[in-house]
C-alpha cells in the first residue's frame, strides 16, 4: 500500500527534512527537476538523444548529410516552487542540447527563494518571456511541453489560463500516436499536477467563463516522494494521463507518521493476502456462514449475485433467505447455495438465532417497503453484533430518517452506498461534496467518506471508479480503478451486488470490517481486469479462482 499525502503533509515532510539539515530546499528542487527529466526519457526513449527530427541516432552513414535538428521544449513556469522545478528542467534539457523556450506566469521578483535561484540560473542560459506571449502555435509545434505553472499550491481558479488549458486538453485527446514528436505535436508533461488541480481533492476550480477548461491536461504527470490524494480522486484522474512518482530522497518521518496516522489515506495496491491465506482446514463452518436476504419473487437476482460472490470469496456456507413466494424461482437457480424461507422480520430474527451465521448481507433488491423492518431485525440489539453489510434498499429505505438507521448500526457494519444512496443518507455531506469549489483545499470524496463513517459509526465504502473506504476512527483507503487499473466495464448492472457479497464472504471468514471492505473492493477490480470488456456481473465471482491463483493462494 502507498500512503497518499495531502499538500500540507508533503510540505511538513519537506520542511522536517530541511529543518533537520539533511537536505536543502534547493537540493530537493534539483532532484525534482532531475526526476522529471528521467521520467520523460523513460516514457519516450526516442527523446533521450540530444537531437530530434532528421538527426542521426547512431551516426550511421545514411544520416551523415542530414542536418541535426535539436529537440525543442517549451517550459511554462508559474509563480511558486512548481515554476522553480520548471526552471531546473529547462536547464537540464538545455545541457542535453535541447532548444528550450521558457515562459513565466507571474513576476520574477516575487518568486520564492529557491525558484528564484533557478530562475537566475536559467537566465544565464536563455530568455524568459511572459506566458501571455507564448503564442499557442509556438507551444504546439515543439516536441515537449512542460507544465510547471502550478503544483500542490493551487488554491483558486486560473481563469486567464483557460484557453491554454483548453488547447492542452485537445492535444492530449487528439493524438495518442507514437512517437509524438514526429507528428509535430508536443508530449505534455505536468510537474506534480496538471496546473489548476487541487492536490487534496483532485478537483479543479471552475470559473464563470464556463467555456474554458479549468485545469491543464497531460500525457504524464510526474510527482515526488509519494503520490497525493488528488492524483487518484476527483477530476484530476482525467487530467494526469499517467502518474509517475519519483523519489527525491525524502525519508518519511516516523514521528510525523505516528502523530498523523489517522489522517493518512492509503492507495490499495493489493489484497490483505495473509488473511486471504487463512482458509481453515477444519470444516466448512470454520470458514464462516454468510446469509444474504433476497427480494420478493422477480427480484431475487441481486441477492443471488451477492450470495455467489460470498461463496466464491471463500465463505464456508452461504444461505439465501427467501420469501415463500420466491422460493421456486431461487431454487431453480442455485445449487451450492442453501435456502431458507424468511418472509418477515420475525422469521429473520428466528433464523438469526443460529449463532453460526457470522455475516449478513441485506439490501440488494430487497424492496423499499420490506427493508426497514428487516434491517431493524438484522441489527436488533438483542442479537449479537453480527458483521453486516448494508447495501442498496437497506440504505435507501432510510432516506427519510437516516438517524434512525445510524442509531441501529454498530461497529461491525459496512455500508456500501453509490453516489445516489450516499446522498440519501448523508444529504448535507453530499451537498458539500457536489458544491462548486471556490478555494483550496476543496472538500473531497475522502473528506466526505470519513465524515460519513464517523456519523454512521461504522465502515463506509463509497463506490465509484475511485472507491473510498473509511472507518469511524479516520482510517481511509482508496481503491482506484484508474490508470493501469482502469476497468470501466465494471460499471454494469449487478456489479455492486457482487461487491456486497465479496465483503460479506470475507466478514464470514473473519476479516475485520475495514479489511473486508478493502480486500473486496480490490478483488472486485482485479476480477474485472482479469475478464476484460464484455464483463457482466455474473462473470465477476467466476474470475476469483484465477485472481487467487495469481496471488499464489
Ligand atoms: N513540497 C516539497 O517537498 C517540494 C515541492 N516542490 C515543488 O513545489 C511545488 C509547490 O510549490 P508552492 O507551494 O510554491 O506552490 P505552487 O508552485 O504550486 O504555486 C503556488 C503559488 O501560486 C499562487 N497561486 C495559487 N493559486 C493561484 C491562482 N489561482 N492564481 C494566481 N496565483 C495562484 C500561490 O499564492 C503561490 O504563490 C510542488 O508542486 C512541487 O512542484 C519540489 O520542488 C520538490 C519538493
Ligand atoms: N468507471 C468505473 N470503473 C470501475 N468501477 C466502477 C466504475 N463505475 C462504477 N464502478 C463500480 O461498479 C459497481 C457498481 O455498483 P452499483 O452502483 O451499486 O451498481 P449495481 O446496483 O447495479 O450493482 C461499484 O462497485 C462501483 O465501484
Ligand atoms: K504543474
Automatic annotation (TrEMBL):
It catalyses: (6S)-NADPHX + ADP = AMP + phosphate + NADPH + H(+); (6R)-NADHX = (6S)-NADHX; (6S)-NADHX + ADP = AMP + phosphate + NADH + H(+); (6R)-NADPHX = (6S)-NADPHX. GO terms for biological process: metabolite repair; nicotinamide nucleotide metabolic process. HAMAP family: NADHX_dehydratase (MF_01965), NADHX_epimerase (MF_01966). Its EC number is 4.2.1.136, 5.1.99.6. Catalyzes the dehydration of the S-form of NAD(P)HX at the expense of ADP, which is converted to AMP. Together with NAD(P)HX epimerase, which catalyzes the epimerization of the S- and R-forms, the enzyme allows the repair of both epimers of NAD(P)HX, a damaged form of NAD(P)H that is a result of enzymatic or heat-dependent hydration. Bifunctional enzyme that catalyzes the epimerization of the S- and R-forms of NAD(P)HX and the dehydration of the S-form of NAD(P)HX at the expense of ADP, which is converted to AMP. This allows the repair of both epimers of NAD(P)HX, a damaged form of NAD(P)H that is a result of enzymatic or heat-dependent hydration. K(+) binds at residues 82, 147, 195. Signal peptide: none annotated. It comes from Cognatishimia activa. It holds the Pfam family YjeF_N. Keywords: ATP-binding, Isomerase, Lyase, Metal-binding, Multifunctional enzyme, NAD, NADP, Nucleotide-binding, Potassium. The keyword Transmembrane helix does not apply. The gene is nnr. The lineage of its organism: Bacteria, Pseudomonadati, Pseudomonadota, Alphaproteobacteria, Rhodobacterales. This is Bifunctional NAD(P)H-hydrate repair enzyme. Its cofactor is K(+); Mg(2+). Homotetramer.
Amino acid at each position: 500500500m502507498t500512503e497518499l499525502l495531502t499538500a500540507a503533509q508533503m510540505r511538513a515532510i519537506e520542511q522536517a527534512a530541511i529543518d533537520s539539515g539533511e537536505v536543502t530546499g534547493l537540493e530537493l528542487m534539483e532532484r525534482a527537476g532531475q526526476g522529471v527529466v528521467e521520467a520523460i526519457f523513460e516514457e519516450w526513449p526516442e527523446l533521450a538523444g540530444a537531437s530530434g527530427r532528421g538527426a542521426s541516432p547512431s551516426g550511421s552513414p545514411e544520416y551523415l548529410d542530414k542536418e541535426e535538428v535539436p529537440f525543442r521544449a517549451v517550459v511554462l513556469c508559474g509563480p511558486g516552487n512548481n515554476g522553480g522545478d520548471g526552471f531546473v528542467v529547462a536547464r537540464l534539457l538545455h545541457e542535453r542540447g535541447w532548444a528550450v523556450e521558457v515562459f513565466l506566469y507571474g513576476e520574477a521578483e516575487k518568486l520564492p527563494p529557491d525558484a528564484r535561484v533557478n530562475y537566475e540560473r536559467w537566465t544565464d542560459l536563455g530568455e524568459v518571456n511572459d506566458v501571455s506571449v507564448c503564442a499557442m502555435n509556438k507551444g504546439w509545434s515543439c516536441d515537449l511541453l512542460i507544465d510547471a505553472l502550478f503544483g500542490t499550491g493551487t488554491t483558486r481558479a486560473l481563469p486567464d489560463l483557460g484557453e491554454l488549458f483548453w488547447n492542452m486538453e485537445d492535444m492530449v485527446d487528439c493524438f495518442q500516436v507514437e512517437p509524438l514528436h514526429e507528428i509535430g505535436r508536443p508530449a505534455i508533461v505536468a510537474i506534480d499536477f496538471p496546473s489548476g488541480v487541487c492536490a487534496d481533492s483532485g478537483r479543479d476550480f471552475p470559473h464563470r467563463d464556463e467555456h474554458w477548461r479549468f485545469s491543464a491536461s497531460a500525457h504524464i504527470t510526474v510527482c515526488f516522494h509519494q503520490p497525493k490524494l488528488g492524483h487518484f480522486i476527483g477530476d484530476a484522474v482525467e487530467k494526469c494521463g499517467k502518474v509517475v512518482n519519483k523519489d527525491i530522497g525524502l525519508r518519511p518521518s516516523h514521528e510525523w507518521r505516528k502523530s498523523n496516522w489517522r489522517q493518512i489515506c492509503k492507495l490499495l495496491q493489493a489484497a490483505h493476502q495473509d488473511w486471504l491465506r487463512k482458509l481453515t482446514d477444519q470444516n466448512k463452518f470454520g470458514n464462516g456462514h454468510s446469509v444474504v436476504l433476497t427480494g420478493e419473487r422477480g427480484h431475487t437476482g441481486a441477492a443471488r449475485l451477492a450470495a455467489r460472490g460470498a461463496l466464491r470469496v471463500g465463505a464456508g456456507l452461504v444461505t439465501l433467505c427467501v420469501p415463500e413466494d420466491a422460493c421456486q424461482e431461487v431454487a431453480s437457480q442455485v445449487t451450492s447455495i442453501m435456502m431458507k424461507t424468511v418472509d418477515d422480520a420475525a422469521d429473520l430474527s428466528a433464523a438469526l438465532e443460529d449463532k453460526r451465521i457470522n455475516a449478513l448481507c441485506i439490501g440488494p433488491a430487497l424492496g423499499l417497503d420490506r427493508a426497514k423492518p428487516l434491517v431493524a431485525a438484522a441489527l436488533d440489539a438483542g442479537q449479537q453484533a453480527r458483521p453486516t453489510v448494508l447495501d442498496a434498499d437497506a440504505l435507501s429505505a432510510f432516506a427519510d430518517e437516516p438517524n434512525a438507521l445510524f442509531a441501529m448500526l454498530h461497529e461491525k457494519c459496512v455500508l456500501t452506498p453509490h453516489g445516489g444512496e450516499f446522498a440519501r443518507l448523508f444529504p448535507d455531506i453530499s451537498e458539500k461534496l457536489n458544491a462548486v469549489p471556490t478555494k483550496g483545499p476543496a472538500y473531497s470524496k475522502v473528506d466526505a467518506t470519513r465524515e460519513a463513517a464517523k456519523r454512521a459509526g461504522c465502515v463506509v465504502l463509497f463506490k465509484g471508479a475511485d472507491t473510498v473506504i473509511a472507518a469511524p476512527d479516520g482510517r481511509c483507503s482508496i481503491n482506484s480503478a484508474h490508470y493501469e487499473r482502469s476497468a470501466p466495464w465494471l460499471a454494469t448492472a449487478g456489479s455492486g451486488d457482487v461487491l456486497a457479497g465479496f465483503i460479506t464472504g470475507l466478514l464470514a471468514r473473519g476479516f475485520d470490517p475495514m479489511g473486508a471492505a478493502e480486500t473486496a473492493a480490490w478483488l472486485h477490480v482485479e476480477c474485472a481486469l482479469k475478464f476484460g470488456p464484455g464483463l457482466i456481473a455474473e462473470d465477476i465471482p467466476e474470475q476469483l479462482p484465477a485472481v487467487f491463483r495469481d496471488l499464489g493462494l
